[in-house]
From TrEMBL:
The keyword Hydrolase appears for this protein: yes
Domain of life: Bacteria
Cofactor field: Zn(2+)
Keyword Zinc (UniProt): yes
Lineage start: Bacteria, Bacillati, Bacillota, Bacilli, Bacillales
Ranges where the Amidohydrolase-related domain occurs: 62-408
Protein family: Belongs to the metallo-dependent hydrolases superfamily. MTA/SAH deaminase family.
InterPro entries tied to this protein: Amidohydro-rel (IPR006680), Deaminase_MtaD/DadD (IPR023512), Metal-dep_hydrolase_composite (IPR011059), Metal_Hydrolase (IPR032466), MTA/SAH_deaminase (IPR050287)
Protein's name in the database: 5-methylthioadenosine/S-adenosylhomocysteine deaminase
Cofactor detail note: Binds 1 zinc ion per subunit.
EC supergroup of this enzyme: hydrolase
Catalytic activity: S-methyl-5'-thioadenosine + H2O + H(+) = S-methyl-5'-thioinosine + NH4(+); S-adenosyl-L-homocysteine + H2O + H(+) = S-inosyl-L-homocysteine + NH4(+)
Protein backbone atom coordinates (compact mmCIF):
# COMPACT_ATOMS: atom_id res chain seq x y z
CA UNK A 1 0.00 0.00 0.00
CA UNK A 2 1.24 3.48 -0.83
CA UNK A 3 1.46 5.85 2.14
CA UNK A 4 0.36 9.32 1.05
CA UNK A 5 0.78 12.73 2.70
CA UNK A 6 -0.84 15.82 1.20
CA UNK A 7 0.25 19.26 2.41
CA UNK A 8 -2.13 22.03 1.33
CA UNK A 9 -1.91 25.84 1.59
CA UNK A 10 1.81 25.60 2.28
CA UNK A 11 4.80 27.77 1.36
CA UNK A 12 7.82 25.79 0.18
CA UNK A 13 11.46 26.85 -0.22
CA UNK A 14 12.68 26.52 -3.81
CA UNK A 15 16.44 26.75 -3.86
CA UNK A 16 17.52 26.10 -7.43
CA UNK A 17 14.94 28.04 -9.43
CA UNK A 18 16.37 29.94 -12.38
CA UNK A 19 13.62 32.56 -11.98
CA UNK A 20 15.13 33.82 -8.73
CA UNK A 21 11.84 32.94 -7.04
CA UNK A 22 12.71 31.20 -3.76
CA UNK A 23 9.22 30.37 -2.50
CA UNK A 24 6.45 28.29 -4.06
CA UNK A 25 2.94 28.42 -2.59
CA UNK A 26 0.59 25.50 -2.99
CA UNK A 27 0.33 21.77 -2.48
CA UNK A 28 2.87 19.02 -2.00
CA UNK A 29 2.20 15.30 -2.27
CA UNK A 30 4.47 12.69 -0.72
CA UNK A 31 4.14 9.00 -1.58
CA UNK A 32 6.09 6.70 0.71
CA UNK A 33 9.57 8.27 1.03
CA UNK A 34 9.45 10.62 -1.99
CA UNK A 35 8.02 13.94 -3.10
CA UNK A 36 5.79 13.18 -6.09
CA UNK A 37 4.10 16.54 -6.64
CA UNK A 38 4.66 20.23 -5.90
CA UNK A 39 2.37 22.77 -7.52
CA UNK A 40 -0.38 25.33 -7.06
CA UNK A 41 -3.00 22.64 -6.49
CA UNK A 42 -3.42 18.85 -6.45
CA UNK A 43 -2.94 16.95 -9.72
CA UNK A 44 -6.33 16.44 -11.47
CA UNK A 45 -8.29 13.39 -10.24
CA UNK A 46 -5.71 12.64 -7.55
CA UNK A 47 -7.02 9.97 -5.19
CA UNK A 48 -6.97 11.56 -1.74
CA UNK A 49 -9.09 8.95 0.05
CA UNK A 50 -6.40 7.27 2.17
CA UNK A 51 -4.01 10.22 2.43
CA UNK A 52 -2.92 12.03 5.59
CA UNK A 53 -3.87 15.68 4.99
CA UNK A 54 -1.90 18.50 6.57
CA UNK A 55 -2.95 22.13 6.53
CA UNK A 56 0.23 24.03 5.68
CA UNK A 57 -1.15 27.43 6.62
CA UNK A 58 1.29 29.28 8.86
CA UNK A 59 4.12 26.92 8.01
CA UNK A 60 7.20 27.33 5.80
CA UNK A 61 8.62 24.09 4.45
CA UNK A 62 12.37 23.69 3.95
CA UNK A 63 14.51 20.79 2.85
CA UNK A 64 15.89 19.05 5.97
CA UNK A 65 19.09 20.69 7.19
CA UNK A 66 22.37 18.81 6.69
CA UNK A 67 25.13 19.10 9.27
CA UNK A 68 28.32 18.05 7.48
CA UNK A 69 30.78 17.88 10.35
CA UNK A 70 30.53 16.85 13.96
CA UNK A 71 31.22 14.53 16.85
CA UNK A 72 27.77 14.04 18.36
CA UNK A 73 28.80 12.24 21.55
CA UNK A 74 30.88 15.25 22.61
CA UNK A 75 27.59 16.68 23.89
CA UNK A 76 28.67 14.90 27.10
CA UNK A 77 31.42 17.53 27.41
CA UNK A 78 29.31 20.56 26.58
CA UNK A 79 30.50 23.44 28.75
CA UNK A 80 33.30 21.34 30.26
CA UNK A 81 36.07 23.42 28.66
CA UNK A 82 35.41 26.77 27.07
CA UNK A 83 37.37 29.87 26.15
CA UNK A 84 40.59 27.95 25.48
CA UNK A 85 43.12 27.57 22.64
CA UNK A 86 42.35 24.53 20.42
CA UNK A 87 45.49 22.49 21.24
CA UNK A 88 45.24 23.14 25.00
CA UNK A 89 41.51 22.48 24.94
CA UNK A 90 42.06 19.15 23.15
CA UNK A 91 45.06 18.01 25.15
CA UNK A 92 44.03 19.12 28.63
CA UNK A 93 40.24 18.91 28.53
CA UNK A 94 38.76 16.84 25.69
CA UNK A 95 41.20 13.99 25.05
CA UNK A 96 41.66 12.91 28.73
CA UNK A 97 37.88 12.76 29.22
CA UNK A 98 37.20 11.14 25.84
CA UNK A 99 39.78 8.44 26.65
CA UNK A 100 37.39 7.35 29.43
CA UNK A 101 34.30 7.19 27.18
CA UNK A 102 32.65 3.79 27.02
CA UNK A 103 30.23 2.56 24.35
CA UNK A 104 27.41 3.49 26.74
CA UNK A 105 28.64 7.09 26.98
CA UNK A 106 28.80 7.37 23.20
CA UNK A 107 25.31 5.92 22.83
CA UNK A 108 23.68 8.41 25.24
CA UNK A 109 25.79 11.38 24.16
CA UNK A 110 24.85 10.73 20.53
CA UNK A 111 21.19 10.25 21.40
CA UNK A 112 21.21 13.63 23.21
CA UNK A 113 22.67 15.30 20.12
CA UNK A 114 20.28 13.56 17.76
CA UNK A 115 17.24 14.70 19.78
CA UNK A 116 18.59 18.25 19.61
CA UNK A 117 19.30 17.99 15.89
CA UNK A 118 15.94 16.48 14.95
CA UNK A 119 13.99 19.05 16.96
CA UNK A 120 16.08 21.77 15.31
CA UNK A 121 15.34 20.59 11.77
CA UNK A 122 18.55 18.67 11.01
CA UNK A 123 17.63 15.54 9.07
CA UNK A 124 21.13 14.37 8.11
CA UNK A 125 24.33 14.56 10.12
CA UNK A 126 27.95 13.63 9.59
CA UNK A 127 29.61 11.97 12.54
CA UNK A 128 33.27 11.16 13.07
CA UNK A 129 33.92 9.40 16.34
CA UNK A 130 34.76 6.18 18.20
CA UNK A 131 32.34 3.36 19.24
CA UNK A 132 30.52 4.08 15.99
CA UNK A 133 28.26 1.02 16.26
CA UNK A 134 26.45 2.97 19.00
CA UNK A 135 26.04 5.99 16.73
CA UNK A 136 24.64 3.76 14.00
CA UNK A 137 22.16 2.26 16.50
CA UNK A 138 20.92 5.77 17.35
CA UNK A 139 20.42 6.40 13.61
CA UNK A 140 18.37 3.23 13.30
CA UNK A 141 16.19 4.10 16.28
CA UNK A 142 15.72 7.82 15.68
CA UNK A 143 15.02 7.82 11.95
CA UNK A 144 17.79 10.37 11.25
CA UNK A 145 20.03 10.05 8.20
CA UNK A 146 23.72 9.58 9.11
CA UNK A 147 26.97 9.78 7.19
CA UNK A 148 29.19 7.96 9.66
CA UNK A 149 32.86 7.21 10.13
CA UNK A 150 35.21 5.93 12.79
CA UNK A 151 37.69 8.80 13.14
CA UNK A 152 41.23 7.58 13.77
CA UNK A 153 44.03 9.46 15.52
CA UNK A 154 47.41 7.96 14.60
CA UNK A 155 49.56 9.29 17.45
CA UNK A 156 50.19 5.75 18.71
CA UNK A 157 52.29 2.61 17.96
CA UNK A 158 51.77 1.00 14.57
CA UNK A 159 49.87 -2.03 15.91
CA UNK A 160 47.38 0.30 17.60
CA UNK A 161 47.09 2.32 14.37
CA UNK A 162 46.35 -0.85 12.44
CA UNK A 163 43.71 -1.90 14.94
CA UNK A 164 42.00 1.49 14.51
CA UNK A 165 42.16 1.23 10.73
CA UNK A 166 40.66 -2.27 10.82
CA UNK A 167 37.90 -1.04 13.10
CA UNK A 168 37.17 1.86 10.73
CA UNK A 169 37.05 -0.48 7.73
CA UNK A 170 34.87 -3.03 9.53
CA UNK A 171 32.43 -0.34 10.64
CA UNK A 172 32.24 1.08 7.11
CA UNK A 173 31.53 -2.37 5.67
CA UNK A 174 29.02 -3.39 8.33
CA UNK A 175 26.83 -0.29 8.21
CA UNK A 176 26.95 1.15 4.69
CA UNK A 177 23.36 1.24 3.36
CA UNK A 178 21.80 0.11 6.66
CA UNK A 179 18.74 1.65 8.40
CA UNK A 180 16.75 1.51 5.14
CA UNK A 181 19.62 3.18 3.32
CA UNK A 182 19.76 6.12 5.74
CA UNK A 183 23.30 5.25 6.84
CA UNK A 184 26.23 5.80 4.51
CA UNK A 185 29.83 5.31 5.60
CA UNK A 186 33.12 7.10 4.99
CA UNK A 187 36.75 6.55 6.03
CA UNK A 188 38.37 9.25 8.13
CA UNK A 189 41.92 9.70 9.36
CA UNK A 190 41.41 12.44 11.97
CA UNK A 191 43.80 15.12 10.60
CA UNK A 192 47.23 15.53 8.96
CA UNK A 193 48.59 16.75 12.31
CA UNK A 194 47.34 13.68 14.21
CA UNK A 195 48.07 11.04 11.55
CA UNK A 196 51.52 10.16 10.13
CA UNK A 197 51.63 10.12 6.28
CA UNK A 198 51.90 6.32 6.06
CA UNK A 199 48.77 5.96 8.18
CA UNK A 200 46.84 8.37 5.95
CA UNK A 201 48.01 6.39 2.89
CA UNK A 202 46.54 3.22 4.37
CA UNK A 203 43.16 4.98 4.66
CA UNK A 204 43.43 6.17 1.05
CA UNK A 205 44.13 2.60 -0.10
CA UNK A 206 41.22 1.24 1.93
CA UNK A 207 38.91 3.90 0.46
CA UNK A 208 39.93 2.76 -3.04
CA UNK A 209 39.41 -0.90 -2.13
CA UNK A 210 35.95 -0.29 -0.64
CA UNK A 211 34.94 2.50 -3.05
CA UNK A 212 34.24 4.90 -0.15
CA UNK A 213 34.74 8.66 0.25
CA UNK A 214 37.26 10.20 2.66
CA UNK A 215 36.88 12.91 5.26
CA UNK A 216 39.37 14.67 7.54
CA UNK A 217 40.03 17.87 9.50
CA UNK A 218 42.29 20.20 7.53
CA UNK A 219 43.87 23.65 8.00
CA UNK A 220 41.73 24.55 10.99
CA UNK A 221 44.43 26.66 12.69
CA UNK A 222 47.38 28.70 11.47
CA UNK A 223 49.72 26.85 13.89
CA UNK A 224 48.68 23.50 12.41
CA UNK A 225 49.50 24.69 8.87
CA UNK A 226 52.90 25.99 9.98
CA UNK A 227 53.64 22.71 11.76
CA UNK A 228 52.73 20.78 8.62
CA UNK A 229 55.24 22.85 6.62
CA UNK A 230 57.91 22.22 9.30
CA UNK A 231 57.26 18.47 9.46
CA UNK A 232 56.64 17.64 5.82
CA UNK A 233 57.79 20.68 3.81
CA UNK A 234 54.28 21.17 2.45
CA UNK A 235 51.10 22.98 3.36
CA UNK A 236 48.22 20.58 4.21
CA UNK A 237 46.51 20.68 0.79
CA UNK A 238 49.68 19.75 -1.13
CA UNK A 239 50.49 17.21 1.59
CA UNK A 240 47.12 15.44 1.28
CA UNK A 241 47.28 15.70 -2.52
CA UNK A 242 50.68 13.97 -2.45
CA UNK A 243 49.27 11.19 -0.25
CA UNK A 244 46.51 10.55 -2.83
CA UNK A 245 43.75 11.72 -0.50
CA UNK A 246 41.98 13.74 -3.20
CA UNK A 247 42.00 10.85 -5.67
CA UNK A 248 38.89 9.71 -3.79
CA UNK A 249 35.64 11.68 -3.47
CA UNK A 250 36.48 13.65 -0.34
CA UNK A 251 35.44 16.48 1.91
CA UNK A 252 37.40 18.32 4.55
CA UNK A 253 36.28 20.07 7.73
CA UNK A 254 37.24 23.71 8.38
CA UNK A 255 39.68 24.74 5.62
CA UNK A 256 40.15 28.05 7.44
CA UNK A 257 43.71 28.82 6.31
CA UNK A 258 43.91 28.38 2.55
CA UNK A 259 45.95 30.14 -0.13
CA UNK A 260 44.57 30.96 -3.60
CA UNK A 261 46.57 28.05 -4.97
CA UNK A 262 45.14 25.67 -2.37
CA UNK A 263 41.59 26.82 -3.19
CA UNK A 264 42.30 26.11 -6.88
CA UNK A 265 43.58 22.62 -6.00
CA UNK A 266 40.45 21.82 -3.96
CA UNK A 267 38.28 23.02 -6.86
CA UNK A 268 40.25 20.93 -9.37
CA UNK A 269 39.73 17.73 -7.34
CA UNK A 270 36.09 18.54 -6.45
CA UNK A 271 36.93 18.46 -2.75
CA UNK A 272 34.02 19.84 -0.72
CA UNK A 273 34.52 21.95 2.40
CA UNK A 274 32.47 21.75 5.59
CA UNK A 275 32.53 25.27 6.94
CA UNK A 276 32.07 25.40 10.73
CA UNK A 277 31.71 29.11 11.52
CA UNK A 278 30.49 28.75 15.14
CA UNK A 279 33.29 26.42 16.17
CA UNK A 280 35.95 28.42 14.28
CA UNK A 281 34.85 31.63 16.00
CA UNK A 282 34.68 30.06 19.45
CA UNK A 283 38.16 28.54 19.17
CA UNK A 284 39.46 31.71 17.46
CA UNK A 285 40.73 29.58 14.58
CA UNK A 286 39.98 32.33 12.06
CA UNK A 287 37.40 32.85 9.33
CA UNK A 288 37.42 30.54 6.31
CA UNK A 289 37.57 32.17 2.85
CA UNK A 290 34.08 31.03 1.94
CA UNK A 291 33.21 33.61 -0.75
CA UNK A 292 36.49 32.80 -2.54
CA UNK A 293 35.85 29.05 -2.23
CA UNK A 294 32.33 29.41 -3.66
CA UNK A 295 33.59 31.63 -6.49
CA UNK A 296 36.20 28.99 -7.34
CA UNK A 297 33.40 26.41 -7.66
CA UNK A 298 34.11 24.53 -4.43
CA UNK A 299 31.02 23.03 -2.75
CA UNK A 300 30.81 24.60 0.72
CA UNK A 301 28.37 23.23 3.28
CA UNK A 302 27.92 23.83 7.00
CA UNK A 303 28.78 21.91 10.13
CA UNK A 304 28.43 22.60 13.82
CA UNK A 305 31.48 20.53 14.80
CA UNK A 306 31.21 18.82 18.20
CA UNK A 307 28.81 20.26 20.80
CA UNK A 308 31.77 21.01 23.09
CA UNK A 309 33.14 23.62 20.67
CA UNK A 310 29.95 25.34 19.54
CA UNK A 311 28.07 24.66 22.02
CA UNK A 312 24.79 23.76 20.36
CA UNK A 313 23.72 21.94 17.20
CA UNK A 314 21.49 24.67 15.81
CA UNK A 315 22.04 24.72 12.05
CA UNK A 316 19.96 27.90 11.72
CA UNK A 317 22.65 29.58 13.79
CA UNK A 318 25.40 28.25 11.48
CA UNK A 319 23.53 29.52 8.41
CA UNK A 320 23.07 32.92 10.02
CA UNK A 321 26.73 33.09 11.06
CA UNK A 322 27.81 32.11 7.54
CA UNK A 323 25.62 34.84 6.08
CA UNK A 324 26.86 37.47 8.55
CA UNK A 325 30.58 36.94 9.18
CA UNK A 326 31.56 36.91 5.52
CA UNK A 327 29.79 40.23 5.03
CA UNK A 328 31.65 41.63 8.03
CA UNK A 329 35.05 40.29 7.03
CA UNK A 330 34.80 41.23 3.33
CA UNK A 331 33.00 44.55 3.79
CA UNK A 332 30.58 43.35 1.11
CA UNK A 333 26.92 42.98 2.19
CA UNK A 334 26.21 40.91 -0.92
CA UNK A 335 28.65 38.17 0.15
CA UNK A 336 26.63 34.98 0.97
CA UNK A 337 23.02 36.16 0.45
CA UNK A 338 20.22 34.44 2.39
CA UNK A 339 19.31 31.91 -0.32
CA UNK A 340 22.97 30.91 -0.68
CA UNK A 341 23.26 30.42 3.11
CA UNK A 342 20.17 28.17 2.99
CA UNK A 343 21.69 26.18 0.10
CA UNK A 344 24.86 25.75 2.19
CA UNK A 345 22.71 24.29 4.96
CA UNK A 346 20.80 21.96 2.64
CA UNK A 347 21.60 21.06 -0.97
CA UNK A 348 25.33 21.83 -0.78
CA UNK A 349 25.41 19.58 2.28
CA UNK A 350 23.87 16.78 0.23
CA UNK A 351 26.48 17.35 -2.48
CA UNK A 352 29.27 17.32 0.12
CA UNK A 353 28.37 13.82 1.24
CA UNK A 354 27.29 12.56 -2.20
CA UNK A 355 23.55 12.16 -1.53
CA UNK A 356 21.93 12.96 -4.89
CA UNK A 357 18.31 12.73 -3.76
CA UNK A 358 18.12 14.87 -0.63
CA UNK A 359 18.60 18.59 -0.01
CA UNK A 360 15.89 20.06 -2.26
CA UNK A 361 12.10 20.09 -2.23
CA UNK A 362 11.53 18.79 -5.74
CA UNK A 363 9.61 15.99 -7.39
CA UNK A 364 11.63 12.78 -7.20
CA UNK A 365 13.60 13.83 -4.14
CA UNK A 366 13.40 12.10 -0.76
CA UNK A 367 10.83 13.61 1.59
CA UNK A 368 13.34 14.97 4.15
CA UNK A 369 11.58 18.12 5.21
CA UNK A 370 11.17 20.68 7.98
CA UNK A 371 8.09 22.80 8.73
CA UNK A 372 8.86 26.09 10.46
CA UNK A 373 6.11 27.91 12.40
CA UNK A 374 6.01 31.31 10.72
CA UNK A 375 3.01 32.62 12.67
CA UNK A 376 5.31 34.24 15.21
CA UNK A 377 6.18 37.87 15.86
CA UNK A 378 9.75 37.60 14.58
CA UNK A 379 8.55 36.38 11.15
CA UNK A 380 5.96 39.12 10.51
CA UNK A 381 5.34 40.48 7.94
CA UNK A 382 5.61 37.50 5.60
CA UNK A 383 7.87 39.22 3.10
CA UNK A 384 10.85 37.10 2.02
CA UNK A 385 10.50 33.81 3.91
CA UNK A 386 13.95 32.54 2.89
CA UNK A 387 15.47 35.71 4.33
CA UNK A 388 13.47 35.10 7.55
CA UNK A 389 14.97 31.60 7.83
CA UNK A 390 18.50 33.01 7.77
CA UNK A 391 18.21 36.33 9.59
CA UNK A 392 15.33 35.72 12.03
CA UNK A 393 14.89 31.98 12.68
CA UNK A 394 16.40 29.56 15.18
CA UNK A 395 16.09 25.85 15.85
CA UNK A 396 13.28 26.58 18.31
CA UNK A 397 10.97 27.63 15.45
CA UNK A 398 10.86 24.11 13.96
CA UNK A 399 7.42 22.54 14.36
CA UNK A 400 7.45 19.32 12.32
CA UNK A 401 10.16 17.18 10.70
CA UNK A 402 9.95 14.28 8.26
CA UNK A 403 12.73 11.99 7.05
CA UNK A 404 12.09 9.50 4.24
CA UNK A 405 8.42 10.57 4.48
CA UNK A 406 8.23 9.47 8.14
CA UNK A 407 7.38 12.12 10.69
CA UNK A 408 10.06 12.22 13.42
CA UNK A 409 9.11 15.54 15.08
CA UNK A 410 5.51 16.64 15.63
CA UNK A 411 4.56 19.95 17.27
CA UNK A 412 8.13 20.27 18.54
CA UNK A 413 8.24 16.82 20.18
CA UNK A 414 10.59 14.08 19.03
CA UNK A 415 8.45 11.02 18.21
CA UNK A 416 11.24 8.48 17.86
CA UNK A 417 13.45 8.98 20.93
CA UNK A 418 12.60 9.37 24.63
CA UNK A 419 14.03 12.80 25.32
CA UNK A 420 13.34 12.84 29.06
CA UNK A 421 15.19 9.56 29.58
CA UNK A 422 18.06 10.69 27.34
CA UNK A 423 18.53 13.91 29.33
CA UNK A 424 18.59 11.91 32.57
CA UNK A 425 21.03 9.24 31.27
CA UNK A 426 23.48 11.77 29.79
CA UNK A 427 23.63 13.77 33.02
CA UNK A 428 24.44 10.47 34.82
CA UNK A 429 27.09 9.58 32.21
CA UNK A 430 28.83 12.92 32.72
CA UNK A 431 28.83 12.61 36.50
CA UNK A 432 30.23 9.08 36.26
CA UNK A 433 32.96 10.24 33.86
CA UNK A 434 34.15 12.74 36.48
CA UNK A 435 34.45 9.89 39.03
CA UNK A 436 36.29 7.45 36.75
ZN1 LIG B 1 35.77 18.17 14.17
Amino acid sequence: MIKRIIIENGAFAVLNAQSGQTTCKGTMVIENDRIVHLGESLPAQYDTSDAERINGKGLFFLPGLINTHGHAAMSLLRGYGDDMVLQTWLQEKMWPMEAKFTARDVYWGTALSVVEMLKGGTTTFVDMYDHMDEVAKVCEQSGIRGCLMRGAIGLCPEDVQDAKLNEAVQFAKDWNGKANGRITTVLAPHAPYTCPPAFIEKFVQAAHDLDLPLHTHMSETKAEVEQNVKDYGLRPVAHLEKLGFFSRPSFIAHGVHLTDEEIATLARYNVAVSHNPGSNLKLASGVARVPELLRAGVVVSLGTDGPASNNNLDMFEEMRLAALIHKGVSGDPTAIPAAEALRMGTVYGAQTISLPDVGLLEVGMKADMVAVDIDQAHFIPHTDLVSHMIYSASAKDVKHVWIDGEQVVKNGECLTLDEERIRHETQQCFEQLLQR
